[in-house]
Amino acid sequence: MHFEPTFRIHMVDPLGFQDMPVIVTTAFTTHNGLPKGEWFLVIPEGEGILFAQRTMLQYPEIPEGPVTFDDAFLLDEVFDQAKLRLRRYIFETKGEEARALLSRPLSVMPSNQNLFVSLWMSNRYRSCLTKIHAKTQCARLSELLGWVLDLPMLDNIDLSD
Asked: Beta-carbon neighbour count of residue 79 at 10 Å?
């Protein structure tokens, strides 16, 4: 089994946070043809909180059947894992707000690599992006984040006076 390294970026409704949580998912195969997926969840509190996990299938071949095991399947699987981790975080940390927040489905919107550029250049969650770059084994994501981490920050000038 082999598929090209790929990743997806999603933003989740604020859910009472100051900013939107970000979920990054990856799918790739090792040099042995073993499929791997990763998820990274950035919680926008303080400097940012990062949760991450890697999932690996120990068998390079899956018997043919009604479901195609490919990068899309793996991306969906790790995405579901990340959403569950976000829900658990809400349950563990949001006290009385948790019930209201968890009573509705998570609203998730696809994003793109511009989100990384925006977060980095506006000095938001830079340590989380740096950690994702250090932890990922997905070549495409690592290359993109390596480039992003070399970008300068934007200078903001307050014009309200």
From this structure: 19
160 is a domain residue: no
Q: Which residues does residue 50 pair with via DSSP β-bridges, in sequence order?
A: 42
| Predicted local confidence at residue 102, as pLDDT | 85
User: How many domains would you assign to the chain?
Assistant: 1
Q: Taking the model in full, what pTM does it have?
A: 0.91
The answer to whether position 122 is within a domain reads yes
User: Where in the sequence is the domain holding 71, given as residue range(s)?
Assistant: 6-148
Could you report the per-residue pLDDT of 48-79, keeping only the tens digit for each?
999 999 999 887 677 888 888 899 999 999 99
CA distance 94 to 92: 6
DSSP element (H, E) containing 141:
helix 139-148
Burial classification of residue 159, based on how many CB atoms lie within 10 Å of its CB (0-12 exposed, 13-18 middle, 19 or more buried): exposed
User: CB–CB of 37/11 below 8 Å?
Assistant: no
Percentage of the chain modeled with pLDDT above 90 = 67
β-pair type (6-12, 108-110):
antiparallel
Residue 132 lies inside a defined structural domain of this protein: yes
97 vs 23, more confident: 23
